Amino acid sequence: MNAGALHPPNPATDPCDGDDLAWAEAAAAGDRRAFERIYRRHAARVYGLSLRLTRDEGEAERLTQDTFVKAWFALAGFRGQGSLGAWLARVATNLWRDRYRSRQRREQLVSDAAVLRGDREGQEPTAGLSGHARSRPDGVVPLLTAMDLERCVARLPAGARQVYVLHDIEELKHREIADLLGVAVGTVKAQLHRARRLLRVMLEADEAPAEGKRGRS
Q1: Residue closest to 49 by CA, chosen among 35, 63, 36
Q2: Residues with Cβ < 8 Å from 71, sequence gap 6 or more?
Q3: Among 35, 54, 170, 171, which residue's beta carbon has the most beta carbons within 10 A?
Q4: How big is the CA angle at 202 (ends 129 and 153), to the nearest 5 degrees?
Q5: Which of 201, 57, 188 is nearest to 142 (CA)?
Q6: Rounded to whole angstroms, how far apart are CA atoms 184 and 10?
Q7: pLDDT tens across 153-186, in order?
Q8: H or E stretch at 89
Q9: Which domains are assigned to the chain?
Q10: What is the DSSP letter of 17?
Q11: Under a CB-based contact definition with an 8 Å cutoff, are residues 97 and 126 in contact?
């Protein structure tokens, strides 16, 4: 499967597409062909979300499969008030949260300790970076490729990564994410701010060596 583009073509908050709603209603009534159409339309996006959440291709494939299995039995509860893509994203995220929570907690302990080479107790996440990277002014963002950003997103601590993916990539609102994760809106905003700050530092750090080489040429 292909993880798809960094930004999905359809916002998660769009009204439900007419075909999606008709297919969802038919699938809820047992129409397997309608469900296959839903799968073909949305599988790549669900896989992309799953890959960003799990950071493992095999786990992402399993999470994608499990998402559609659960969706098959739960489509009767889909009312078309939002997009089917957003609904499937919530199914995938809930499965990931419920089934991988303990594993993600262990990963977060390691990730929080080591991210950006700040692996000494009590050290700020940016402490291991060069002074050049830490002193870049706000608003200065290097020219990036989607691969650069994807790689940095994968390095975020689990909590920050989850909120960033749901908000900036899947385009869910703060309140939707808070309800989905069972946390306060303020927590969502704080994690999103943290994710963006860490991404900026990582991306600028990746750019710094290239600038140094240009300066010496």
Answers
A1: 63
A2: 38, 88, 91
A3: 170
A4: 145
A5: 201
A6: 26
A7: 888 998 899 899 888 888 888 988 888 888 899 9
A8: helix 84-114
A9: 18-212 (1.10.1740.10)
A10: P
A11: no
